[in-house]
Amino acid sequence: MRSYRDLFRTPEFTPFFLASAAHTAAQTIGALALGTLVYRMTDSPLLSAVSMFGPQLAQVLGATFLLSGADRLPPRSTLAGIGLAFAAGTAVLALPGLPVAAVFGVVLVQGLIASLGGGVRWGLLNEILSKDGYLLGRSVFNMLSGLMQITGFATGGALLTVLSPHACLLISAALYATAALGTRLGLTARPPRSSGRPSAAATWRTNALLWSSRPRRLTYLGLWLPNGLVVGCESLYVSYDPHAAGALFACGALGMFAGDVTVGRLVPAALRPRLATPLLLLLATPYLLFALHPALPWSAALAVIASAGFGASLVQQERLMALTPDELSGHALGLHSAGMLTMQGVAAALAGSVAQLTSPATAMTVMALASLSVTLTLATTAARQRAPEPAPVLQEP
Prior knowledge:
Blueprint: H1 4-9, H2 13-42, H3 45-53, H4 59-65, H5 69-72, H6 75-93, H7 100-128, H8 134-162, H9 165-186, H10 200-211, H11 214-234, H12 237-240, H13 245-266, H14 276-284, H15 296-307, H16 312-322, H17 329-357, H18 360-386
Helix pairs in contact: 2-3, 2-8, 2-9, 3-17, 4-7, 4-17, 6-7, 6-9, 7-17, 8-13, 8-16, 11-16, 11-17, 11-18, 13-15, 14-16, 14-18, 17-18
């Protein structure tokens, strides 16, 4: 599969793509509205950041207990059910006067539900497309995410100037319901990829199997840690510049879109494996300059440049699929998604804590330095692993 045209000629790809677009738009509008609502209620950078990225913190529980369902549940029904659950939860968040504790309770439940969604979604994509089409298809979905985040954050920012956060949350709930309907009507029923009932024990066994390979472990850590720490920087946009947060998120999404187009479509296959580390360094470095408190045009440009580095995940996912048996693809991708989102939630809480004690700009710089350190450490470890053992020296008798 060599072109985007081939992708959209593939049966079911287009309805799957459109349903995912509605789901991503719902996420972006809802997250910005919720972060703004909590910041207005509490004036706390920490609580604002955690409200936007807090659902990711629950992903670790899902990865521990629920992830075996990624390959053991029928994908169409599961994705439609997840969409309806998010619609209901977001409608609850829109209720006026909801206490902050109740807000975070709903956010936790949404995170648990979402932990199953990544594995189901990307495992289904692996079924819809041929083996050689996964990278191109995933790059299109990443570009979709970038475009819908640009649209969603820009639209959400505009809506918040004329509507309350509660009204924007209701719009988000309607989009989730639309995505669920599109999934139900646009996809055919498929059996689970693996036999057996989902269980915590099955999840633990498969997690242990995937984690037992050192190359897979390094790949997972590269997918989870560096970009999770940079998302900690992004989680502070609302407290860094409350009036321009939507613009900063949209610019970040634009950079991510450009990076995914470049890596997924323009970079030759032979060159891709060497780009993971340079892209991860690009991802973090521009945030060091936020220590200088740049004005909006400069901070927006830095967000665009940095987010192009998210294209590293395409290279890393391609390697992960090469290291994973087909029957475990959904679980493996679900573990990637759950671990990455968990790290994003942890990083948002950490960044918010540092910002609470110092300032959002200082916290961004700290998180960027941590991301750079992790990237260089993982690159050094992987290089040592690939280095051939020296030949034994024969001693003369």
